[in-house]
Design a protein that fits this description.
It is built from three helices and seven strands, in the order βαβαββαβββ. With 157 residues, the protein is an alpha/beta fold. The chain has a seven-stranded mixed beta sheet, with helices on one face.
């Protein structure tokens, strides 16, 4: 039986959203996959910038919208994908996405709505949405059951 756990966080600034990212990063380990969901301007990159400040402190984090992937060096590499322009399974192969699913780093994807069908069951899912105040963000982090957190074998062949 799958037992997911959801953590709800509310932030009121970009800095607070980055702090939420730092807190999540402190719980991650090599091989983890974190999928981000939320519209334009919801704070996905800010959250990931906070993660990188823990995992790859020297990284200059930007959204990889045009590069499609940014690799941040740290004790464990952080692979940051933007799936906004991904329209098909073939696109994922053409950008080398599955090569990064080797369990050697921590993989994060923005615009995971576009690849939801191939997300590992073991992925941690982060949903960001705006609150009533435009600076407020509601963040739900959905953790899979602990026995599901290894996704290395789930890579399609």
């Amino acid at each position: 039986m799958k037992r997911e756990r959801t953590e709800h966080i509310e932030t009121d600034s970009e800095q607070a959203t980055e702090q939420a990212g730092r807190a999540l990063a402190e719980t991650l380990k090599q091989g983890d996959f974190v999928a981000f969901f939320g519209g334009l301007g919801m704070g996905k990159t800010a959250f990931i910038r906070g993660m990188a400040s823990v995992l790859a402190p020297e990284a200059a984090v930007t959204s990889p919208t045009f590069a499609l992937v940014n690799v941040y060096a740290g004790a464990v590499p952080l692979y940051h994908f933007d799936m906004y322009r991904v329209a098909s399974f073939a696109d994922l192969y053409s950008i080398g996405f599955f090569d990064y699913m080797d369990g050697q780093g921590i993989l994060v994807t923005e615009w995971s709505e576009n690849i939801e069908g191939i997300l590992p069951e073991a992925a941690i899912r982060v949903f960001l949405r705006q609150g009533e105040d435009p600076s407020c963000r509601h963040i739900d982090i959905v953790y899979p059951g602990e026995s599901e957190r290894s996704w290395k074998e789930e890579v399609p062949s």
